[in-house]
Known about the structure:
By secondary structure, this protein is an alpha+beta fold. It has helices spanning 3-9, 17-23, 35-41, 59-63, 98-105, 122-139, 177-190, 205-213; strands spanning 13-15, 27-30, 46-52, 67-78, 90-93, 141-147, 150-158, 161-167, 195-198, 200-201, 217-229. Helix 2 (17-23) crosses helix 6.
Amino acid sequence: MNSNLALQSTPMIKDTPWDNKVFGFYTAEILEYSARTLEQAIRRPGHYTLKLNPLADKSLALQYGFYFCDTLLEPVCKQGDLVLSNHPDIHIMDDVPLGELLKICDGAFHNGRFHRDPYIEKKLADKRYLQWLEDLAGRGKIYSLMLGEHIAGFIATNNNQLQLHAIANEYRGKGLAKYWWSAVSNKLFENGYETVSSSISSSHLPVLNLYAGLGFKFTNSMDIYHLLVKP
Length: 231
């Protein structure tokens, strides 16, 4: 049997076509942390993601050449725990043209796991976020962050998750994020969700402090490892 076909058929290795579309080579996520699955992965050239509990033994991953990229934290807020913050000039909208938000998204991310991967070009890592925002526009809800009549950023959601967000350079570091984040989180609660969650890099301390100040609790974490198998 062709080894590539055997690899594609395993339920322990999941194709990630959205990343394949951006990077131009095979991409996948390892769903089972075992020598058998890692052995299958290295048979096919491509880029692989492995998510592990921070307390897990990483020796097997290192043996197969995986390298650390990031630790992700999961902030979760229950309805009633949200600390609401209001500002007279700040509101959110959900009908701003996607093109305006893509301008803010382009180049806004610098510390994501693909930006920290030494084998991924930074321009491709930037493109991945643009593609992600376009995908979320089709299957989720994007809220534009408004300061008066000015578009200051966006928060893209999918169900009860705040999945992708960015603030334009000129509005960063001014203490405004709490107003937008609380407004979008409250909107999700008004839509009937009992919890609101997100996923952030442990290295992004300003966002970590933002979520903590809004009443989010950090309930889960995972270490992200990558592997590039060259042809």
